[in-house]
Structure to design on (733 residues):
């Protein structure tokens, strides 16, 4: 006996179905994956407890690609095959990234190609394929820690991404085998992480300072919908620039020429600078240890005030896009209700101070700034997959009446229940009813009642070309998909041949609120009748199936295995059941069907024995037991 | 017609409702699933509907819609622990046959 848990109203899952959903922050430098567990959004770490996955992939001539930290470590020695920043290239054409290509060390193949590809030891790779590798690694991480397959994901993209870049991100997810429920703008995800979408109305600035990029977005929240009013930024400005300035200060008296000839040394100094910068968010001063090119080492004391002066130019530079975004949105600083801080570099105290002084408004800083986007995406994914109540819905709509298909006996099998949030996809498997059945009629209906005649017919189509098989052995998956615009598409697919057919419908078309309400009221008023009708219809279908199976067996080899008496007994039983199926008594139909089944047992076992004999003819029993 | 809870189940339900910050009661229901199978529903209730029947058992308001009551009459809800897993179990006298894991059943 399975043990059940209490769900939120209307959120119970079907048997054997768990709804696992994750949010992915697919970043330029690092990526993260998060999920909601027991109502709490958490970022999933790898086996070594690390939350970040460096967005770096190394392709090798032999073996599978390396992803994340191993690839990052290899990037110094194998820069041509180690691809970082695929996010800067994704969805862009060769011509678009001309200037970018000059900064990147990679060899691009044929310049005229529409989609730029980088030549690696493992063949040419597009940015989509590189991003797909990163997504695959994150997917594996989630499936290991959640112990199940992911039902759906929400992936975040920058607010300024155009359609091509968004589509390419979706393509990468598809390659990784992920079902993308929605792409979410990164600033919107950050706002969701702070629950700002639960408020009534407001205007928020999202200040996102990462390692190498800076973005600022102005969002307008109105009735649960976020609108991006303006975005601005600098794609080459971030925490790395602060580290470089600090490193230069540390090496002030080292000869410039010597520095430029020893890039390894500057890189080490930047690592020390970064460590110092991080220490100064907690302490007012820190000691930096440095190894010099001549082999000697030195220790330098750096205090917070000095560092603030050193990095001030970087922070001041971020305020220019802030001013521009306000101007583009046609707003004043006074119109902003709060500022959400995103990105690891916003941990630096003087960043917070300067941003607060600039906007003169409250900063949101409680959620880890590295994780805030992934956390917001996870919350959104949890809502979209259907684990939360409808009033927490963001930018969403619900299905007013259940959608389903007609099954044998003029009954309705509901596939998407009423009040499911859109976009939504649900699939269910059906099978054939008769031996050798090669086509199936799919009748799409809408409503809450149990019988087709009481529901509204939306569309009919046929799936043809099902290979002839015994009744019940074909596997036909019927999928219902309602997109964000309320457009329903229904498809039917046969598993062995892969033949598929589909139809598009607009389900809510032509129904007024009153009609929807009437249909709902009827389903309650007639609840008892409906259940009786359904039970009766189920028994009739079962009875007809039994008759059909026995009749066809009789036709094939009734003479071979039955004497006249036995045969007429069976025919009598069939006729009795046939008569009863026209009655309204479900119980007596069931009884008669059971009786007939028992009556046919002798016949069935003789047929079985004969078919086993024919299979074994000419063989030794030992051949079968091995 | 009646639905009841064991003392242990009631204790857990009251605890969950308190942690959730309140609820009008606990809903027990069945829904059709598959061609002739039925599945249990166990949910918090925020609003009691006109078509619901309300029972009181060990201090818990148990809410069942009329359609489901046909299948659930006489059910006792229990709370059990099995290894690392724990949760509620329906002891339903109407059940004739259940699938291996007990998540769906026929009457």
């Amino acid at each position: 006996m399975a043990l059940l848990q209490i769900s939120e109203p209307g959120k119970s899952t079907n048997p054997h179905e768990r709804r696992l959903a994750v949010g992915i922050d697919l970043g330029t430098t690092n990526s993260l994956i998060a999920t909601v567990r027991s109502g709490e959004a958490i970022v999933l770490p790898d086996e070594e407890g690390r939350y970040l996955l460096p967005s770096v992939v190394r392709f090798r001539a032999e073996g599978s690609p390396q992803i994340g930290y191993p690839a990052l470590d290899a990037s110094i020695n194998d820069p041509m095959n180690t691809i970082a920043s695929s996010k800067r290239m994704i969805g862009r054409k060769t011509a678009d990234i001309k200037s970018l290509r000059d900064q990147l060390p990679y060899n691009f193949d044929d310049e005229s190609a529409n989609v730029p590809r980088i030549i690696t030891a493992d063949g040419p790779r597009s940015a989509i394929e590189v991003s797909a590798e990163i997504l695959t690694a994150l997917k594996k991480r989630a499936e290991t820690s959640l112990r199940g397959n992911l039902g759906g994901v929400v992936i975040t993209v920058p607010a300024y991404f155009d359609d091509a870049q968004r589509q390419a991100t979706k393509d990468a997810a598809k390659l990784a085998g992920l079902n993308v429920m929605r792409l979410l703008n990164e600033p919107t995800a950050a706002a969701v992480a702070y629950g700002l979408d639960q408020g009534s109305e407001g205007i928020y600035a999202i200040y996102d300072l990462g390692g190498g990029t800076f973005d600022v977005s102005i969002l307008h929240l109105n009735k649960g919908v976020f609108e991006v009013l303006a975005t601005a930024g600098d794609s080459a400005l971030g925490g790395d620039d602060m580290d470089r300035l600090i490193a230069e200060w540390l090496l002030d008296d080292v000869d410039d020429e010597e520095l430029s000839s020893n890039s390894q040394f500057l890189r080490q100094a930047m690592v020390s600078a970064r460590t110092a910068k991080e220490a100064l968010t907690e302490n007012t001063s820190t000691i930096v240890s440095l190894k010099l090119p001549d082999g000697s080492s030195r220790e330098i004391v750096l205090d917070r005030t000095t560092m603030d002066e050193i990095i001030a130019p970087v922070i001041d530079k971020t305020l220019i896009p802030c001013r521009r975004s306000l101007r583009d949105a046609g707003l004043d600083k006074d119109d902003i209700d709060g500022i959400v801080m995103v990105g690891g570099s916003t941990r630096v105290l003087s960043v917070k101070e300067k941003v607060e002084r600039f906007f003169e408004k409250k900063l949101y800083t409680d959620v880890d700034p590295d994780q805030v986007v992934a956390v917001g995406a996870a919350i959104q994914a949890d809502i979209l997959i259907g684990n939360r109540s409808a009033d927490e819905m963001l930018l969403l709509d619900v299905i007013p009446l259940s959608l389903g298909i007609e099954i044998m006996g003029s009954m309705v099998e509901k596939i998407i229940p009423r009040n499911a949030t859109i976009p939504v996809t649900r699939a269910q498997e059906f099978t054939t009813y008769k031996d050798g059945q090669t086509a199936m009629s799919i009748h799409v209906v809408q409503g809450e009642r149990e019988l087709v005649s009481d529901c509204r017919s939306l569309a009919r189509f046929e799936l043809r070309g099902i290979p002839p098989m015994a009744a019940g052995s074909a596997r036909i998956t019927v999928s219902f998909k309602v997109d964000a615009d309320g457009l329903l598409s229904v498809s039917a697919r046969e598993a062995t041949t892969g033949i598929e057919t589909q139809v598009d419908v607009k389900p809510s078309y032509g129904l007024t609120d009153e009609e929807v309400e009437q249909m709902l009221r009827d389903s309650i008023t007639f609840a008892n009748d409906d259940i009786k009708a359904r039970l009766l219809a189920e028994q009739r279908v079962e009875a007809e199936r039994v008759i059909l199976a026995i009749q066809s067996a009789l036709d094939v080899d009734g003479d071979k295995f039955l004497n006249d008496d036995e045969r007429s007994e069976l025919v009598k039983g069939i006729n009795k059941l046939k008569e009863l199926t026209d009655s309204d008594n479900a119980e007596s139909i069931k009884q008669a069907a059971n009786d007939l089944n028992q009556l046919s047992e002798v016949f069935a076992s003789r047929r079985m024995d004969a078919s086993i004999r024919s299979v074994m003819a000419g063989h030794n029993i030992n051949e079968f037991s091995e | 017609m009646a639905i009841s809870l064991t003392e242990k189940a009631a204790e857990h339900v009251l605890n969950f409702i308190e942690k959730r910050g309140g609820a009008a009661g606990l809903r027990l229901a069945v829904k059709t699933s598959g061609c002739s199978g039925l599945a249990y529903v166990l949910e918090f209730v925020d609003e009691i509907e006109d078509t619901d029947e309300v029972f009181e058992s060990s201090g818990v308001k148990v809410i069942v819609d009329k359609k489901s009551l046909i299948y659930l009459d006489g059910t006792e809800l229990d709370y059990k622990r099995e290894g690392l897993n724990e949760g509620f179990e329906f002891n339903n006298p109407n059940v004739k046959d259940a699938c291996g894991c007990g998540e769906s059943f026929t009457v």
